[in-house]
Amino acid sequence: MLFAIFPILFLWAHNLDQGVDFDEVVGPLALSLTVAAALWAFGTWLLHDARRAGLIVSILALMFFSFGYVNESVGNESGLSTALLLAGWILLTVIAVAIVVSGRGWISGATTGFNVAGVVLVGLNVFTIAWAAIAPGASNPTFLAQGAPTLPPALASTPPAHRPDVYYIIFDEYGGTRTLRDFFNYDDEPLMRWLRSKGFVVPAESATNYPRTELSVASSMNLRYLDFLTRKVGTNTGDEAPITSLLEHSQIGTIMKSLGYDYIHVGSWFNQTRTAANADVNLQARGNSDFSSLLLQQTAVTQASGNRLRVEDYRDTLYQLWAIRHLEQYRGPRFVFVHFICPHGPVVFQRDGSYATKAELSAEGRATAFINQHFFIDQQIRKIVTYLQDRPAAEQPVIVFQADEGPYPGEPTTWPAVPNPDQLEMKFDILNAYYLPGVSKSVVWPTITPVNTFRMILDAYFHANLPRLPDREYTFANVQHHLYEFHDVTTLVHNAIWGRPEEPRPIPSGVWDDDS
């Protein structure tokens, strides 16, 4: 039984900085224990030997949960296909089980050895998890809320009568017009013109504040830069728990609820945006969390099936598109947050919205496949706008379409002091569009960045008098070890995006490493 839970505890212990909670782990633990117990009971009945059955179950559990690690390491190094490695892994498992079944006097000693090893491995991981839970940390919401912007007391106590619905919709890694043209030969200017014709303001020189999802969204949802985390936790850490806490207890969620809004969170599979602790309603298609998906990716079944998680990505996006159109059951006013993983990889959509198989991606080429998915998302943006604006003038909602970062999946994880201009353009040039019914378009300035999004909206609609922050762009030193060592690259970013001529540029290596 110990080896049925060890792989799960191991993965949990090594993802504590991702904000994995017990409620995400308890399901996999219970399922693994139940299956292991059933197999052990069946083996004991069949072999008339509980120890032998326990040893076999331990072997099966280890082989089942470890194949993903073997496939990723051995497969990548040797170039062997998943199918060939799996066949060898199954053969090795069968041989190990056969040896145990036919074994004689050594079974008792081997069982004792496995039990001791299991106790040690489980114990070490439990200690790591427990220490993280009881040790003082910087992820306490009250601690993180210190210094956060708040509404004037009079406004919070007496909200105005007119409170339009607010939709904050993030499309992951949706690059800006310059990036899409320069690197992908894709022109989204027709969509931008259409948005302007529908009353949107599309700032001319808008960039993300941070080139990574969790940093960017934590900053925009908390209306401030993240340098305060540098002062609280230092620069020599990659612990994302404070970021996860900021997202689960976002300041904009708290503010909107204080104004009488229902906070509806339409989450993705991404752990930090899957749910929000301070939301009134959390909606999501997938039962599996980011942790469960990561666990499944290491198993023999998922590695063999290949497309299972891609199909879930496809269904997740379709559900989110459906959910936006079916929120009438929740009383208004509504503050709706949606994080679409698309157009970030994996590429799962053809231009017409049908599922893109791996075979089709291979035939089309990944750059073409990415553009096909982008085209589909652009069409969905038009449909969302058409739906949300189909209501009386007095009920028109605020709509924000925004990207967290540009299209360079998962990279760079390390930023040098003077980054490559191509990397800066790809990661910082983003989609940013605002529909603000009933207020002057002049409230949006050309260089507005996500950190000022809700400061601007709260001031325009509720006279919150939150000061506008300087629009700056920052890189981080390293994800794993120096996440909060930020460097101001504002001038470099603007020179890279708008200070050099538009021209075709090669896609940097590594852009497609996310199995897109």
Verbal overview:
- This protein has 516 residues and is α/β, with parallel strands linked by helices.
- It has two domains: 2-134, no CATH class; 166-258 and 292-498, 3-Layer(aba) Sandwich (Alkaline Phosphatase, subunit A), CATH 3.40.720.
- Helix content is 52%, strand content 9%.
- It has 22 helices and nine strands.
- The chain has helices spanning 2-13, 22-47, 50-78, 82-102, 107-134, 141-145, 153-157, 177-184, 189-197, 213-221, 227-233, 241-248, 251-258, 271-274, 290-297, 300-305, 308-324, 358-364, 366-388, 421-428, 453-462, 490-498; strands spanning 166-172, 200-201, 262-266, 281-283, 334-343, 398-402, 432-435, 474-478, 482-488.
- The strands form two sheets. The chain has a seven-stranded mixed sheet with strand order 2-7-6-1-5-3-4. A two-stranded antiparallel sheet has the order 8-9.
- Helix 14 links the parallel strand 3 (262-266) and strand 4 (281-283).
- Helix 1 (2-13) packs parallel to helix 5 (107-134) and helix 2 (22-47) packs across helix 3 (50-78).
- 41% of the residues are buried.
